[in-house]
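To whoever is on call:

I kicked off a structure prediction for a single chain this morning and the downstream step that reads the tokens threw a length-mismatch warning. I double-checked the sequence; it's 716 residues and nothing unusual in it as far as I can see. Pasting both halves so you can look.
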Amino acid sequence: MTTTKRNIKRGILKFYQYFIFIVSIAIIIALYPKEAKFKYEFTKGKPWLHETLVAPFDFPIYKFKREIESEKDSINKSFKPYFKFNKKIQINQASRLAKDFEIKWEQHTTKYYRNDIGLNSDSSITNKKETIKNEYLNYISSILNFIYEKGIVELSDVLGKVNSDLSIFIINQYSEADEFNISEVFTPTTAKEYIENAIHERRNNFSYSENIDIDLIEKLNLQNYIEPNLFYEIGISKDVKKSLIENISPTKGLVQKGELVISKGEVVNNDNLRILESLKKEFEHDSGINKNYLLIYLGQGVLIFIIMLILFLFLYNFRRDILYDVLKVTFLNFMIVFFVLISTIVLKFDFLNYYVIPFALLPIIIRTFYDTRLALFTHLITMFLIAFIFPNSYEFIFMQFITGAIAIFSLANVRKRSQLFLTALIIFTTYTSLYLGIALMQEGNLENINWKNIIWFVGNGLLLLTSYPTIYIFEKSFGFLSDVTLMELSDTNHPILRKLAEKAPGTFQHSLQVASLAEEVAFRLDANPLLTRVGAMYHDIGKMETPIFFIENQKNSLNPHDTIDSEKSAEIIINHVKNGVNIARKYNIPQQIIDFIRTHHGKSKVEYFYRTYMKENPGKEIDENKFTYPGIPPYSKETAIVMMADSIEAASRSLKEINEDSVKNLVNSIINKQIEANQFANADITFRDINRAKEILTSKILNINHARIEYPKEIV
């Protein structure tokens, strides 16, 4: 029954392996643009290496993107904004002026036009006053009306950024737009200056009596009746500008069917490059051209299948641990599909450039959880898939491969935030250098280089800074373990380690010694030193439940095992593995660290109490399960190293004499017994690694227990 279940499980796992790859292939095919691929590759400044090409059909010659951008810039710079009069403001201010003038005129005539008794009744005097009144009211009204009819505009951001000689359109009462130079309209400041100049000029040109009346005008303070009446029509301006930009012709000229496009060996220059790119664009996007789209889909499917098959075979031959792990193989396929998806989305928006996509994020994330070889291989596979989408496939793969490799080398371990900033800077520098190198080779001058692409590289570097939060999300979603988390767990102020140091100080010191030994061995054997160290620090946390029953925590000669039988003692010792797993899960310790707790004794026996029970019960049948650890043997190089280091560190404390022979014999004896018990059968560790580990452990134990000079008592 067990074999049947195991076979069923293997069958389901194998089905899932195929299923996840098939689903990924189907998604990528669905994401691919449904268009034919232009079969010719060409580069500016290089000879045309294909056969002589003639136009297979009529097609327009498209402008370069920079030409269209230049036309857009020209429209933006020379655009004439639209303004509209608000007639109510002029009417309201004129009415207000008339009322205020009546009041001021009465005060004025009382002061300057007092007459002898009876004189006021003279109709000639009254008529004269009325005539003067109307004359001055008309005069000041004409000044105000002239200003308002010209228009008063508040200087806004729109006008503040244009040249003084720029024209504007003013919408009149008939909804027609008349063009005016900006200098022909008033601002509140120039309107007030105009009023001052007009009054000053009248005062200088008239008699003393008229100047007295001009005092009335000054007291009215015409500047108080100035208010902007010409307002920027943002909606109309935007619509007109948008229409002008939309009406920019994307083409300039036409190539007729049968016309020579380029001859074999001819150097691709600006002129024929424009025609070649136009032909490519028309061929790939014009659905009217005779194409069999079913065959296009079939061709895309074949290419995608082969590329994904290469990845599958790579995993099958070199990383079966990933291929047979549901979460790991899902994560790998997800990353590939995700970047293909992002690429297709960016391709659909003209305002975005694919240079902004942080492709280097892919190898960085994979390197964080796996190894350099897999990160680089997956990155290359993904770039091959995406290269079919973007133009200039060779340049794309060249730039992304170099940048991805440098990203991996510069950020081998994501442990410090400063590393990430430095890597982002290196990636930006690499992209910029490669781009400029290719551009200089193609253009041959600095003028034609599109310097705006540097901005996209800056954005790429900034997006690369999302590595930390992205790694954290994937870590929690897929149960992975990054170096950042390992660094946090290795802090001795972690709650579990603090508790271990308080309750079982001897075990805590033992764990630190094992961590030191195991880390050195892992480093020399090309294992993961940080993972090994952290696993060793947590491997014995279960002992804090019953610390006194472990010899390293016993402060005096009293041993609680002397008061209980061997079976109970074995049960307590064995339970520290189960207790450790429970404690680790309670504190949400990652499964990879829990594996060290479960495997550091494997399926070995509690030899001391097993032999004691045999002596106390001769001839009695023994249930060996009661004296055997319920864990599993190590299944990785790191867990195997911790098992060796743990046993040797503990045993070395009982050595009466520390010298090279005694330590070497101890190390060989313990590790050979573990080999005989098949404890390393499932671990990816070789006999060569084990022999090397023996040498390192022997050397480290001797260094830890080196002989000390006996100082004179008076110095001590």
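Update from on-call: the warning came from a stale cache, not from the record. Cleared it. Sanity check on the structure: The CA atoms of residues 310 and 554 lie 58 Å apart.
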